[in-house]
Amino acid sequence: MARADSTFQPVGDSDARLHGVPAVLVSGFKAEEQVAFRGLMDSSGLEMVPTVYIVEVFLERSLAELTGMPSETRAGETAELPRAIVMSGLSEKQLHALMDGYRGSGLPRPHWGSVTPTNESWSIKRLLIELLKESEALRQARAAE
Fold first, then answer.
1. Which helix (H) or strand (E) holds 53?
2. In this structure, are residues 28 and 129 in contact, taking their beta carbons and an 8 Å threshold?
3. Strand 84-88 with 23-27, pairing
4. How far is CA 53 from CA 13, 118, 143, in A?
5. What would the pLDDT profile of 19-36 be if each residue is shown by its tens digit?
6. pTM of the entire structure?
7. Boundaries of every domain in the chain
8. Nearest-angstrom CA–CA distance, 109 and 111
């Protein structure tokens, strides 16, 4: 998985935790998709991990601030933002459970990112822009092959 600080580090399958407070930031999901995502989190063994739904008023807030918000913050609200899932403080096993479960969920493909020591002070807006740039670069590289 590419990390949002633009360095690639393979993720293992251990109980080692990734950087940050355990939380998942969700952007660009409609209300009914949020319900499906929460069910996916629960069925993946992540029922205790807070989920924060990103809306426009959060765009200038830091990742560190957002990951500290209560679970289900802004649930049911839809924002016209890029579809993204940003993970923080999950174990490697939890990360794989979430990503594997998501692949089989039927939900539209998101941009994936994680909170790192480099980006935790970034605004969610900056991270979303970086994820979009990274996605476009990968698309162009595939097209050139």
1. strand 51-54
2. no
3. antiparallel
4. 27, 22, 33
5. 999 999 999 999 999 999
6. 0.90
7. 23-144
8. 7
